[in-house]
Amino acid sequence: MCTEPEVEAVPLVGTTHSTSDDLPMSKYWHNLCKTTHQNCGIAVDSTFKPTRLVDLTLPKPVLRTSLGADADCKFATLSHCWGATQYAVLTKDMLSSYLCQIPEAAISKTFKEAMVVAKYLGFRYIWIDSLCIIQDSKDDWRHESALMSKVYGNSSFNISAAGAEDASIGCFLPRARNWLDSRKISTSSECIKLQYMCLDYGFEHKRLDDMPLMQRGSALQERILASRILHFAESQLFWECKELHACEEAPSGYDFRGRKTKLDLDDATSETQKGWQELVSGYSACELTDSKDKLVAISGLAQAVQNELLGSYIAGLWRNDMESQLGWYRFGSLEHRPVEYRAPTWSLASVDGEIDLRYSSARELSLIRVHDVVVQGVTDGDVYGQVLSGTLSLSCELLLPVDIIRPEHKYRPHSCVTRMDGKDFASLLYPDSIEDDIRKGSHAIRVYLIPQEMSAQL
Known about the structure:
Largest sheet: 8 strands, mixed
Radius of gyration: 26 Å
Oligomer: single chain
């Protein structure tokens, strides 16, 4: 009879001192994905070529334009935080100079190390926003921002400077000797001896999702659109593709439990709606360098997921089943409505903060009908970018007169007491902004509610 096994847990100690030391592991993941993963690396448009790319074959990087139709244009991309550090960028006056040689002043530590990674993995070209978009040209910026879904969606490889809060930090980050989070668990008895490598549950949230880049709205879009990503986090490398999530502690892969990071563009079912809900929730919780880019920073995702089930795209919402989407609400502490116009008030892009977007279930009946929606974009023909104005016409079967009496409880920010037909009710009110919060007055306020849905059982 076997005796009770003895269990010993031993912390593991890392043997490398920088995230650059395990670049050979990144090459292994990349080659594994290219040669064995059938669902990865399938370009949306194999003929697509970015307007500009950085050529890495010369001693000094050079900007290239108008690549020939037959040119081998497999390219890498970079996701990074701009941060507060100022670097030279591509401008109208400097374009001709960049075509001869990109100046050193424009190549930050992050850019330089991303170029090293791209060349190490065999890429001739890399796309970097501040080097490939003319930063002082609104027309070029709008044109290129409309191409983001194609740039990242057709990239063969995306380099993510996840642990760097600005471009001066770089991709190759130093790490302590005890950077490993895993434990080696050994069990032994008279009958059997086993060893396990154990990771903390949800360790990728602490080690990757909490990194500076992951808090940026544009990075979420880039992460989802790119087919293959190598993240340079603070302590280790992470790999993401459609078939594998891996890291240095779990090089053969681990069970990913985080937010959706890849799209199934062939899925035209209700899962598409669910996926868009998750994307909106995750995106709205992120930060933007410029809040007026609220629609621009998610435009690539909208282009990628658009299908017949969703219908046409309208300032963050979809035309099909728009009635239920108008019930989106913002939760958390209230903020002021943006001073600069960026979307009509019925659009979830009109406010900052985390958004909950929901679709109605099959058991519910809509009591409103959207008859017409008109949105004018900043750029003619671009329905996914910035908007100048928007109007919506709808009808409803009834209006309910309700008096907002007072907040119900000071520790419940959304609670209030409402009165209808002489009866008081404890209710929840989710204003879009501080300016829309009508609960703070000293007198009851009469409002008219549009019932959005009614249960089919009533």
